[in-house]
Structures are given as structure tokens and as C-alpha cells.
Amino acid sequence: MDYPKKLVKQILAATKDMPLEGFLSGQGSIEPKVMFVGEAPGRTEIETHIPFSGQAGKWLDEWLESINLKRSDIYITSVVRSRPFHTRKKLNKKTGEFTFSHPNRTPTKKEILIHAPLIDFEIQSIKPKILAPMGNSALHRLLGNQYKISDWHGKLFDSKIQVLNDEANGYQLSHETYKIFPLYHPAAVLYNSKLKNVIEEDWQKLSEII
């Protein structure tokens, strides 16, 4: 999606001193059957400029295929558009030198708030039939921290969502009501294989309502 240039410039300026890398726009149909909202791009996504193109993306593609959806049928975005990373310092005992790596991390609440205008713009522009937050970061951004993915995954319900309130430097509820269908983040199965059957059941439920 093409965002207002002024908006992107504003967000990049606000995050320039934060441990964030690159910028990835949301992608997909502007009239999607479902709008999926993830957490943030990882290293692979920043390199390929394609959302969910890493390991988690392979699971996403498999589950999309299982319910006869293609990426061209959906829209994919995330609550933070740059890759959050932290710096890891490790001593090489043989050489006595330190090496540094920069693995992915969960975005902070401040980073999510700074990026809030982008997802607000996407939702207002697309007016999705179904909003599917994937994982807690997306669920918290849209509905608030009182919601947990473990409690709400696989359930369809109507709700207002959180949108940016500039004056309060926080969120307020939207005027519009949306159909929400939370899902576990595809990466969850990489860390807990026991969730695989649960996630597949949720996707089958999704297929019955689209």
C-alpha cells in the first residue's frame, strides 16, 4: 500500500534513534477477504520486502492454502513496520575478541504507538470485512492489553478497535465496529509444536466464516 509520504517521513524521523531496521509496507488486495495483522517484520522480510517471507511465512502460506486462499485474496500488515532488534555481545574465548549479533525482538509499546497512524490509515482505507490480529502484539494494539490470544483465538466477535489519539498520546476507541477473528501468530508453532492442531482448527473456523 502507498502511504502518505508525510506520514512515513514523520514515523521514520520519530524512530531514527531506536533499534529498528528498514521499512516494510503492508501488501495485498485492497478489497481483501481478511486483513491479517502481525507483529513486525523480521530480518528476512526486510531483505525480501515481502511480509511473512521467513519461517513463519511458510506456515502462513500452508494455512492459507488449506482454506483455499492466496495472498492476492488477503491483505497483510503489522503493528510495527520496521524490524525491532537488540544487540547481543559475545566473547570469543579463543581470540579474546567480542562479536556482535542483532537478533529480532518484540516491539515495545512506544514503538507500536509511534507506528499507530499507519495501521489506522490502512484499516480506514481498506475497511476490512474481517480483521485477524495474529498474536498478542497485534491483539493488544487493536483491542487493548486486557485481551490475551490464548483466550480469544479462533473466536469471531464484533468490537470497536483502538485508534490513535494524538492529544492523549495514546488510544481511543473507533467509531466503527469491526468483525474480529484473533489467531495465534504463525511463529507460535515454531516455539510450541503442540499448538499446531489448535491453530489448524482455528483456520478451519476462519474458512467457514469468509
TrEMBL record:
Q: Where is the Uracil-DNA glycosylase-like domain?
A: 25-204
Claim: DNA repair is one of the keywords in the record: yes
Q: Which SMART domains match?
A: UDG, UreE_C
Q: Which Pfam families match?
A: UDG
Q: Which domain of life is it from?
A: Bacteria
Q: Name one GO molecular function term.
A: 4 iron, 4 sulfur cluster binding
What GO terms in the biological process aspect are recorded for it?
A: DNA repair
The UniProt keywords, alphabetically, are: 4Fe-4S, DNA damage, DNA repair, Hydrolase, Iron, Iron-sulfur, Metal-binding
Name of this protein: Uracil-DNA glycosylase
**What species is this protein from?**
Floricoccus tropicus
Q: Taxonomic classification, please?
A: Bacteria, Bacillati, Bacillota, Bacilli, Lactobacillales
